[in-house]
Amino acid sequence: MKRIYNSILGLGLMATALTVTSCIDETVPTSSTTEEQIKSSDRSLSALLWGMPASLNTEDADNAHYRFGYGALMKVRDVMTGDYTTASNSYNHFSAWARNVSQGENYAIGQYIWNVSYEFIHSANLMLNAVPDVENASDDVKGYVGAAYAFRALEYLDLARMYEFLPNDKTSNINKDGNDVLNLTVPIVTEKTTEIEARNNPRATRQQMAEFILSDLDKAEQYIVFLNETNKTLPHLDCVYGLKARYYMWLENYPKAQEYAQKAIEESTVSRPMNEDEMLNTSKGFNDISKWMWGGALVKENDAVQTGIINWVSWQCNETSFGYNPYGPRTLIDASMYSRISNTDIRKMLWSPGSYAQVPAWYTAYCVGINDCLNNDGTINAKKDDCRYRAWGKCVSVKFRPNLGKYNDVNIGAASSYPIMRLEEMYFIMIEALAHQNADLGKQLLTNFMQSYRDPNYSTLATNQEDVIEEIVFQKRVEFWGEGLTFFDIKRLNMSVTRGYTGTNHVSGQRYNTNGRPAWMNLVIVQTEQNNNEAVMGFNNPDPTGKYTNWSN
Length: 553
Fold this sequence. Notes:
The termini are far apart. This protein has 22 helices and 4 strands. The strands form 2 sheets. The protein has a two-stranded antiparallel sheet. It has helices at residues 35-40, 42-55, 70-79, 95-99, 108-130, 139-163, 195-198, 206-223, 237-250, 254-267, 276-280, 303-307, 312-316, 335-340, 370-373, 385-388, 410-413, 423-437, 439-453, 465-479, 486-493, 527-532; strands spanning 84-86, 294-297, 331-333, 417-421. It is globular. By secondary structure, it is mainly alpha-helical.
């Protein structure tokens, strides 16, 4: 019986909406390399190892330019929060998630999340399937297997937290078919899953998924110590501990989350949080994978880089002459969030106005001359029509910058890195986890961290546990703006999203205010999975599309 390695059996192509018909599409070899050859070849196993980080950066345009892999999913999660917005919806291929439209089972945007996530899992399953007897494998191969378990755990933990149905203010856990979907996650597909099993593979409960992920993480911890590769596009023991810290936060087991966050900090080769120079460096900053525990990285040969527009830098960097951001959907921090950040906090300079938010030289192409565009202090003279067209405006991000500062060279500028896990996250997990157990100690640890690394003048008036945790999470939101993590905290803690208010910089059509976690954070399983997996039929999350009214003053 042929084995399959993902739960997408009938992918099909979609335009705006999907048809409801599809057919079984088994995953079978398409080259002359057999499974036996893979298992007997160290070179082939090495190729499978490097195929895992490579799979995170696969560009799959199909006229939908949000499709550039793991970084795209990070951006999807961010636009579903209230912290991250855009200056305009012009050319914005991510706007549907921000506007809460087309979120149902028959739409292409949901299909992409499902497909690409299981493709990441597929790349890990290929490695695990190729090493059926890991105990008798070489030490190098054991290390490869440890990395595969870590990659698979990373993705299932993301999927579980995105698709698990949690109570919200607009949709019920009793769905349209009358079934209770509370705490249901996604189907589990391993290297041993057969086609017949995949056709009847129900959504795992929270408990089932938790047991599965922990099993993967325990195996990753056991074998990853044999991994000799130091490249940070691969996970190492500190990352496994970091994943366990995330895992226990999801389950709200705060003592264990604190324990593993501490272990990750102690094990990490990153000695300290990024400092001001490292964060704000115009040529590296948040491009420098050496400053993180784990990251994704692109090189100029990647298809995503070669497109010029379907890659991380295109959609996250406002300073380039290539890509999407400079031509409409410039990335902004929420105005109220920006105003709450202390002026002595070094992170505030990650958004303009700030001393590092200078106008890129390429703006001169849109002005009569540089002196006509700039005031004496380097800000744009918005009275000039040609300059106003490219004016940045308040709250625009300069956090993510083109590689080596090459704002006009896509082959270099877009060959950038992006963070998957940073040491700072472990500090914030440890701080919040401690606060859930003892608010005073959590507040003290937060104050120590902030004064040591972010704001020497930091203080907070928060006293009770609820306010202390809110303050901790706010500082975490500032720290990880644009890194795809805030979604998980908002959903876990049942926090509201507030985009509609006087002075908002969220564009019309995105100004939704929720009472607690948004309904749209319970992602909907796509129709193609239901067509080919009978156990999922009738057990989908309710469609949140159109459930909120846009705020207007």
